[in-house]
Amino acid sequence: MILTIPCLTRQNAKHSWALPTLRSDLTRGIQIIDQHRTAGNHRSTWFAIGSPNQQTTITISDNFLDDLLKTKEYHTIVDSYAVAVAGRLKCGNPEVFYCRSGVAVQIAIRWPIEPIMSNNVVSAYALMEVRNSGNEQVAECSIKLGFGFPKTAFEIALMAVNSVRKAIDRGLVRFHNPDTSQDFQDIERENPSETSCSQSEVEQFIAGKAYLLGFMAADGLTEIWAVDPWDAKYLGVTTKELAVAMRSLQAKGLLQPGTNADYPRPTDKLLAEKSSENEDSDGFQSQQVVSRLNLPNKEELLKDMKAVLERHPISAIVVIDVDHFKQVNDQKGHLQGDACLDKVVTTIGAVVGRKGKVYRWGSGDEFVVLLPDFCTDETPVTAERIRCEV
Fold it and tell me: How many domains does the chain have?
């Protein structure tokens, strides 16, 4: 059974439990579709949430609802959770989250969380399916819930979602085609004490979110929720700082007001700026097709670096050396060695995309990636993605 980040509500003879502080416009359209008993005589309830043209369905078991606590503190947690989900619901699928690394993912969490016996030790894991909204590839992830883990399903969901986002940013999540089976990947729980993002980084995040979710993922310009509290926790900032960043982008003409002050949409200026980042706007031509035979050399790298630094105050290079490559040539022959390098170069190019350019450096198994306008936080993430993919 999958719990896909729902807005929880339930009213029937057995359970009369709702979210009293939610505004009516957020809860309107919630309806029970069906109820039936499954294996073990457990009953599940299907809900539909949203307007007819923008609707998502969820499944909640009676076991889940029976575990709901009746304390004021617990209902505060539930309220906060439901408001966050309802806010995302107004902009589309509430299970889709934007990552700093520039991808949007849909995260489904399996519920209930059941203990697993391993080496005579009982452990609990949050299991998730993560889907890359850009290429539809998937990844199965798990987070071990040890001592001190969040006690409620709502807190676990928030922790799990943001932990996966940070793992994706670090290049630690391996995606694969949906028709291939893979083992669950262990993900570290997020560390709340991590350094928070700067104002500039928060603005970059909102601008990227507006471009990807408000334009690329939609048929036309649509709104985004700029002050999502889950984004705030993910970035290590407050919702007020998100609002300030949003207003700064509006002042720069990159966002325009939507139907609500917290729901802006991208402007033509933002679209033009983001498009120019993907075009040849850095004084050098990015590669259309990356292959071993068309890689530019060190001299072209130095020329491109000069052009890039004239346009950007900071940039980065990643130097790559393929370990033990000589053994491939010695044992398999040069034809197989070339085929190996072809795959390595193609893989590097797929990770870099239009964000940078790949060069040959030194001998045949050494390469350099030039990344215009990349800071010290972004570069290790890309380098780690390259390493994992290779």
Answer: 4
